[in-house]
Design goal:
- There is one protein chain.
- With 147 residues, this protein is α+β, with helices and mostly antiparallel strands.
- The chain is 37% helix and 18% strand.
- It has a single domain, classed as Alpha-Beta Plaits (2-Layer Sandwich), CATH 3.30.70.141.
- A four-stranded antiparallel beta sheet has the order 2-3-1-4, with helices on both faces.
- Bound molecules: adenosine-3',5'-cyclic-monophosphate.
- Adenosine-3',5'-cyclic-monophosphate binds next to loops.
């Protein structure tokens, strides 16, 4: 089973979309194995987005994601990385499929509601920024395998 990392950005919390977005993730058959609300520190933010260091949107992005609490999670399922990326939609909500989370609720590219890891390697790296190994739960759902 593959795992992937995601977090709901501060504007998802401010807009009261935590439940709506998590509902869509659960509906898609991705199992939540870790979940918490956390305020991102500057060092976490820099580590999370280190590949974007130096780009014009880097500093405003760091300020935005530290502007309020976020909801971080680890999800598990077959092809979890790709399935979540499709559910989330393209980075720019203007280009995202209208059925996707960003396409449905997103307004701007910076405040695109949710981040989802783009590979298993990114997911492992990003998960370690937010979670201890002991915070990742190993359990089965009663209906697992019936989707
Ligand atoms: P995310 O999936 O979290 O990964 C990197 C983030 O950088 C991305 O979502 C956007 O929020 C942000 N981003 C990428 N490109 C731009 C841009 N051109 N202007 C502002 N923010 C951007």
């Amino acid at each position: 089973m593959e795992k992937t990392f995601a977090y709901l950005k501060p504007n998802s919390i401010q807009r009261g979309l935590i439940g709506e977005i998590i509902r869509r993730i659960e509906e898609k058959g991705l199992k939540i194995v870790a979940l918490k609300m956390i305020t991102i520190s500057e060092s976490m933010a820099r580590e999370l987005y280190r590949e974007h260091a130096g780009k014009d949107f880097y500093e405003p992005l760091l300020a935005f994601i530290q502007s309020g609490p976020v909801v971080a999670m680890v999800l598990e399922g077959e092809n979890a990385v790709q399935r979540l990326r499709i559910l989330v939609g393209k980075t720019d909500p203007l280009e995202a499929d209208p059925g996707s989370i960003r396409g449905r609720f997103g307004v701007s590219i910076r405040k695109n509601l949710i981040h989802a890891s783009d590979s298993i390697e990114s997911s492992n790296r990003e998960t370690r920024i937010f979670f201890e190994e002991t915070e990742i739960n190993d359990y089965s759902l009663l209906n697992e395998g019936q989707f």
